[in-house]
Amino acid sequence: MTDPAPAPIRAAGCVLWRRSAGGGIEVALVHRPKYDDWSHPKGKLHLGEPHDAAAVREVREETGMECVLGHALPTARYLTEGGRAKIVRYWIAEAVRGRFVPNDEVDAVAWLAPPEARVRLTGEPDRTLLDEALVTLPAR
């Protein structure tokens, strides 16, 4: 008899945006030194934590920003490098206040216009997620 597959890792995150000084929008990307990549803020749920609460918490922990969730984006499903299933629920979120302080998990945050953010994102799934968010974000 084989052991059952471990439960999927549950996570949540956001495509975080704000108005730029010029009236357009900027998207926040986080740099994770452990993976040397640029992605949207996201992270694992705490035991019993709802996905939406985890998304807001992860944005705060990784970017220093308080945010207001908008609508849900497509859920990402993939296998981790170790082969375990991971399910990440995403939302659009508007940054309302805060200040980034580098930490062990995220050493830099970049606020970029959407075209520059799309180029900087390391993974194609994150680019697709940005494209989905841009459909409903305010006019740039």
Question: Which terms would index this structure?
Answer:
alpha+beta; 7-stranded mixed β-sheet; 140 residues
Could you characterize the architecture of this molecule?
The protein has 140 residues and is of the alpha+beta class. The protein is built from three helices and seven strands; from the N terminus they run ββββαβββαα. Strands 1, 2, 3, 4, 5, 6 and 7 form a seven-stranded mixed beta sheet that branches.
Topology, pairings included?
Elements: E1 9-19, E2 25-32, E3 37-39, E4 42-44, H1 51-63, E5 65-79, E6 85-98, E7 108-112, H2 114-120, H3 124-134
Helix pairs in contact: 2-3
Secondary-structure element series: EEEEHEEEHH
- Counting helices, strands and paired strands, the structural category is alpha+beta
From the alpha-carbon coordinates, what is the Rg to the nearest angstrom?
Answer: 15 Å
Shape descriptor: globular
Largest β sheet strand count, sense and barrel closure: 7 strands, mixed
Strand fraction: 35-45%
Mean pLDDT: 94
Poorly predicted tracts of residues = none
Instruction: Kindly state the number of beta strands.
Output: 7
Work out the helicity level: 10-25%
Count of helical regions: 3
| Distance linking N and C termini | 57 Å
